[in-house]
Amino acid sequence: MNDHALTLLVLLPAAAACAMALVPKSAGGAAKKLTLATTALVALIAWSLAFDGRAGGAGLSHIVSAPWIPSLGVQFFLGVDGVSLPLVILTASLSFLAALASLGVERHPRGYCALLLLLQTGMLGVFLALDFVVFYVFWELILVPMYLLIAVWGGDGGRRAALKYFIYTLAGSVLMLGAGLLLYGQSDLTRLAPADLAECGVMGPDAAKPHASGMVLAEWLASDDPLAERYVDAEAAGAPLRTFNLSAMARLARSTDVFTSKSWGGHNLAWWAFVLLAVGLAIKLPAVPLHTWLPDAHTEAPTPVSMLLAGVMLKLGGYGLVRIAWPVCPEAARDLAFVVAVVGVVGLFWGALAAMAQTDFKRLVAYSSVSHMGYVLIGLAAGTLGADAWALGATGAVFQMVAHGVTSAGLFFAVGVIYERVHHRDLNQLGGLMNRMPTASGLALVLALASLGLPCLCGFVGELLVLLPAWTFNPYLAAAAASVTVLIAAYTLRAVRLAYYGPEYRGPNGDRLTPVTPRELAVLIPLAVAAVVLGVRPGIVTEVAEPALVAAGQPFAHPHPNLPGMTPVADAADARRTTR
Amino acid sequence: MIWHSVLFTLFAAIACGFAMAVVFTSNVVRMAFYLVISLSATSGLFFLAGADFVGAMQLMIYVGGTLVLLIFGVMLTAQQRFVQMRPSRSEVLLAGLLGAALLVLLASAAVGVPTWRGSGPKAAALDEPPLTATPIALGLLGFRVDGDPDDGQNRAGYLLPFEIISVHLLVVLVGAAYLARTRLTAGSLAQQPPGGFEQDAAEDRIAEVEAIAADSPGTEGPPT
Amino acid sequence: MTPERLLPTLLLLAWLAPLASFVVSAIAGSLLSRRHGGQEGGAVDGAAARTIGHVATGAIGVSLVASVLALGAWIAAHPATDGHAPAATAYAGEWFGVLDVGPLHVGAAYYIDALTVVMAVVVTLVATCVHVYSFGYLAEETAAEGLEAVADDEAPTYYGNKLRRAGRLHRFYQHLSLFCFAMLGVVLAGNAVMTFAFWELVGASSYLLIGFYYERPKAAAAATKAMLFNRVGDVGMLVGLMALWGLAGTFDYERLFAMAPTWMASHYGLATLVGAGLFCGCIGKSAQVPLQGWLPDAMAGPTPVSALVHSATMVAAGVFLVGRIYPLLTVEVLVGIASVGAVTLLVGATLASVSHDLKRVLAYSTVSQLGYMMLSLGLGGWTAGLFHLVTHAGFKALLFLGAGSVIHAVGTNDLRAMGGLRRAMPATAGLMLVGALALMGAGVPVLGLGLSGFFSKDAIFEYAVAFARTNPSYAWLFWAPLIGAVLTAAYITRLGLLTFVGQARSEKAEHAHESPESMLVPMAVVAAMAIGAGWAVPGSRLSVPSLLAMSAPEATHHARTGSAWSGVTLPGVESAHEVDVRAAAGWAAIGATLVGVTSALLMHRGGRKCETPAGAPMRQFDEHWLPSVSRGCDAVARRLGAFVSGPLDRGAIDGGLAGAAGLLKSTGGGLRRIQTGSLRQYVFFLALGVVLVSAASLGVALRWING
Amino acid sequence: MILASLVTEPVGVAHYLIVGAVLFIAGIVCMATKRNLLGVLMGVELVLNGANVNFIAIGSPYLRGDAASVGLDGQLMALFVIVLAAAEAAVALAIALNFYNTVHTIDVDAADQLRG
């Protein structure tokens, strides 16, 4: 039967958001406490997923699948596996910390809390959805609360930034919808082997369990599942049975040529779907030419929203790539790998250089997010080389997403701590904070060093895992990616020197520089500890993500026939490579 | 049979000629008059085509009622100086061209369909003794004479639709009367729409309107 | 317990002790300051800070003991033979795994051979001395209580008054423990990723230590500059690592050294790239020529830091790494290393002899001595280079600690304000003299008598002579160190004269007073090391060089010729130890030193004259031209960034999209004008529509009819 | 050519359709060119009559004896048109008067407040 942990996880915040209407208008504090309680409960459930052993690893677990729109073959299909588990836990935890950080919000607290919870529902939904329509619905759900949060609670330029964010993301999701429909139009469930059908959850939750009893296809067909009936008459008429199920699409892409048979304008449809998906998701990632919404959105967003925006929302794009684009269109991914890698490296340089010139601390951290996300693209591009490269590149990309989530959320909160007190973020007017707020500055320094990519902290592992396959992919790109670490170090240390070092604070309302409050510590300390723990013990994420990624990345297993910029060395090294 | 063609040509020529005249003349009173003649000729055509009741109705309702109404309209809205409102030359030219194009199209369509050509009035039908009750009259009362009764074609006639039409006509006339009542008071005239007309002409207008309001307490509806 | 298990456990203990003290002092520091001051931001009181200091010193003491025990166990396991014994096997293994993804396995591994053990002892010994020394040097940090405890005159405040801040001795020991943990991590590392990880952690802890007085803009800038210069070097190292992975598919040293000959044969070019990449890291860390700008500025940190980090240990990590990855380096890379070393030692020596700042002279002296070590390693003198590293750690730490006590007494770094201090500070003067002599390499060549510097410098010259003999076209690699030796003797004599000889040139120098006991004892210990490091243990053949020779890679045992491109043959060990080579090297070294000393004496006439004619332009080069280069790079990057975030982001991309939106609006406006509002035109358009539609449909129908 | 042959033929439906067409076009042109509101109304009347002629022609028993003839409905449609034309004229006149009384001119071009 359906194990409803995930439905609870996704719908609890939504329920709380609705319950916010019951809270009387005057009881702002109660609203915030309710939010805190709900996010805490959701975080608890998410962490329980991690510790109950079934989740994580190659197969899907905690399956929830119920027919939603039978005529289109759309299922309300949730599930968690190695790739989505770390991101779900990151989202739940960051939402709790954001709720903790937003206890200080005064304007319309009820509205603010409702939107924050709605946002959390959207994000969790995207990470757990395994059906394209469910994925898309939750993806769009995020837009509205984010727009309102930035426009109403944001800074003075909030409305313009929110509008820009809305239009960019909407354009992205339109492209994604196009790709989804394109794939839906080509998909055909009847061509999947019964075992695959069971595994990808089409036959309901029990069949999808890894060691499910040998549920024969006939048994499912006999059941009253509307999808079963449509499967029967589709089989009889020999017509294709369309599906939105993502894992089914991935298996179709792997075992049949259903996506690559037809072609248009010189490329097969999978290629076009990949291009649409890649551009749509790259806007969210953000990849360089489409990134200008991020700095504006961040400078105007309130601190907790900024934490969520940088900590989780940027990962939606990356997760979409790893979950949909790469597995469903492997050949296209391989053809365009070089372009993706170049965009990644350009993104690295662009973000880092732009950050060098910023005077607004928050805008600097925003541009650093643009830069760090470049690694994800390079990792995925280099991953298309072969089984080893995919294991390293994809795991590196996922780890970089989680690590960047921790460090960027932390840095944004640190900037928020300063902004709450002196109400400005101009680096030239800051300084001398190390003496006024030693603990907060110390933790901020740890987070800055982590985002800098200092080993023994979480930033380095992602970089290392991504850069290793990148060398065999293209040595020049890899060298360029490595050389950006100097720029990243430069702007981070410049910011630290301008903000925290220096004799004294000479900027406006210096008297309000009270030392850090316990509530703020309760947000900063977990993030700093997470940065250190993830740095020293990266196995927490990699052991969970790697099996799932290797399973998803089987199309890249066979070595790449014609490799752009491939140094002859790799095959020699492969031949002699001794196992661990 | 020759008479039928001659009469047809006569009526057609009058109808079309005076229709053209309506278009070309710029004086609205002459237009109204030409229209009366053109519509009368049309009713002649109706009689020729065997639709005598319709021809009669055309004369009574259309020419008698509607056009009289129009003439009333012309009288009521005739300004004191006989303003010649002529559209610009290019508009006339364009409209003419358009009319020609449309005419070519319709004519080619009319002529193109073979079944509409040349059957001509059947002699027999012409010299049948005129029936006392024309099929249309029977139809109105509810007996269909044109369809053969045995295969269930004696459907009810058009009595009910005509009742509805008459009620509809009544409602419309009441509405028109209400719409056209003169709500003008001296005050409302003073606030001219700024962009409307020269201020100095406003005073004598007011005087004129009061005169109208005085002698006709409520404009009676058009004669039915 | 067999040495196979004993050594790893001992060294693990030595490694983790500083980490434990770092964690304890970090937590205790923040808790104490919260509790004491009530609301956070209060000061940690002196006693608590000192206890934290003692904890840190205890931890490093434990590491020292463990390292010495490990050294003893190693010596027991490998009796010293006559120097040409086959290389002792290294103990390699893994304490615990950290990262397992696909083919990559990275763990906390160790690779223990003679070099590791010797380096561990040197690092922990010098660190312990510095820990003890710091109590005295940083006494004023815990002198008073509360937020106004310490006055810092070099930090400019808005209203010009002296900046008052809380004492933070606890934070100093916290960062020092982190540094020792990281340094030992580099020394013990068993795979390249672990080396790189602790390599950057060492850089980070040096950033924290240089930036200890973060109120001073000079220190903050120096810290950032040091970290960035190291990062530039680390980029090269990262590229080297990536190439290594592409080449070998593993990072484990043991397996790499085994596989090295095979892929050196098959992929010579890439192997050279790997070597060059990893050496870039060493250039960054050991302040070799292109990236040496940060070391003189790093003197803005407290002097104990300069003594430990920027003379004995961290900067030596580069030399240690070249020693560790020696089998992976091809001959071309070694020649490259040698030439970089030669250029560095010349640049360092010249700048040292003109600078007015006491610590800056010693900093440039360190750069120069590191050049010597790199030169020796490059010329194939593996044992000589690393032996010089050990001896240099000794006497340079001594010189720095001496400089610390002089600055402590006089209060300023400027040589022009010192003079005649030998009367006021006899002990410091005597110890500094020992250090200076060791640095010069004073000693009697034939009898084999002399300080530690003499033996190690002599060994280097042996390899220089042997190399010059086998490769006449590269003779400049012999003349460079010779001139360097002259300059070394010159600047250290000048230093000695200007500080201790002649008249006191400032009233502060007049009533300087000797440093307290707690500073002199560690200096004495280090002086002993400076003196005795070169000698062999009486009665046995055991000495530092013989110990190191045990782990010399066999590639250095016999001559090696590089590829046709460079046509260089590195001299083997035997050719460097021929009798005539040793004699020539010995006399050359001592001759250069004497020339240097006499020239310094003449030019500075007993400490009375500070200025040297050639000095001004060189000082200009050092103080203005070099910093302007790094400032220029920063400015270029910031201007490029401004261009990217301004015109490109806002102009091109946003402008483009705004343009598209504008286009949409204008087309909408255009369409709006079609609604003219005139009834007659509407009728006209109506009819026109009818005409066009019917014409079109008629046309289609006709085409369809006739086919 | 075709038109010439029409003159010689006995009067058939085509002739009536031609007359209907001419009336229709006259109405259109009148509506399009007359600047007097009542002129436009007259144009409307002409258009309606054009349509009536066609209805009658198609439904006339004499002109088209074949079964395809619409029979009585043609005439009835004409009747409906006439009655509705009357109603429409009434309303149109009311609007025209109202327009005249408020704007004091009968010129159609004055009523362009609804332009884009």
Q: Would you tell me which CATH topology of chain D applies?
A: Helix Hairpins
| Overall form of chain A | globular
Measured distance between first and last alpha carbons of chain D: 47 Å
Strand order of the largest sheet of chain A: 1-2
Which value, in Å, is the CA radius of gyration of chain D?
18 Å
In percent, how much strand structure appears in the residues of chain D? under 5%
Determine the mean pLDDT of chain D.
84
Count of discrete domains of chain D: 1
* Overall form of chain D: elongated
Outline the biggest β-sheet of chain D.
none
Contiguous helical run count of chain D: 4
Query: What class would the helix/strand composition of chain A place it in?
Result: mainly alpha
CATH class of chain D: Mainly Alpha
Q: What's the helix-strand series of chain D?
A: HHHH
Please state the second-level CATH architecture of chain D. Orthogonal Bundle
Structural class of chain D: mainly alpha
Query: Distance between termini of chain A?
Result: 41 Å
Protein name (chain D): NADH-quinone oxidoreductase subunit K
Keywords (chain D): Cell membrane, Membrane, NAD, Oxidoreductase, Quinone, Translocase, Transmembrane, Transmembrane helix, Transport, Ubiquinone
InterPro entries (chain D): NADH_UbQ_OxRdtase_chain4L/K, NUOK/Mnh_C1-like
Subcellular location (chain D): Cell membrane; Membrane
Provide structural commentary.
The complex is a heterotetramer of chains A (580), B (224), C (707) and D (116). With 580 residues, chain A is mainly alpha-helical. Chain A has a domain at 336-556. Chain A has helices at 5-19, 28-51, 84-101, 109-128, 132-153, 158-186, 194-199, 205-208, 217-222, 226-237, 246-255, 269-284, 293-300, 303-328, 330-335, 337-356, 361-383, 387-422, 433-436, 438-452, 458-473, 475-499, 518-536, 539-552, 569-576, and strands at 61-69, 74-80, 263-264, 267-268. The radius of gyration of chain A is 24 Å and the shape is globular. The model of chain A is unreliable at 564-580 (pLDDT under 50). Helix content of chain B is 67%, strand content 0%. Chain B has helices at residues 2-24, 28-48, 52-77, 89-112, 123-126, 135-141, 159-180, 186-190, 199-215. Chain B is extended and about 70 Å long. The two termini of chain B are 38 Å apart. Chain C is mainly alpha-helical and 707 residues long. Chain C has helices at 3-37, 46-77, 114-137, 169-188, 192-210, 217-248, 253-266, 268-285, 294-297, 303-312, 314-324, 331-352, 358-378, 382-410, 421-424, 426-440, 452-470, 476-500, 507-510, 517-532, 544-550, 573-576, 579-604, 615-672, 679-705, and strands at residues 91-101, 104-112, 150-152, 163-165, 443-444, 449-450, 560-561, 569-570. In chain C, β7 and β8 (569-570) form a beta hairpin. In chain C, α1 (3-37) runs antiparallel to α2, α3 packs antiparallel against α10 (303-312) and α17 (452-470) packs antiparallel against α18 (476-500). The radius of gyration of chain C is 32 Å and the shape is globular. In chain C, 58% of the residues are buried. Chain D has 116 residues and is mostly helical. Chain D contains four helices and no strands. The chains are: A mainly alpha (580), B mainly alpha (224), C mainly alpha (707), D mainly alpha (116). Chains in contact: A-C, B-C, B-D, C-D. The interface between B and D is large, with 97 and 80 residues. Chain D: This is NADH-quinone oxidoreductase subunit K. Chain D: One of its GO terms (molecular function) is NADH dehydrogenase (quinone) (non-electrogenic) activity. Chain D: The chain crosses the membrane at residues 12-30, 37-58, 78-100.
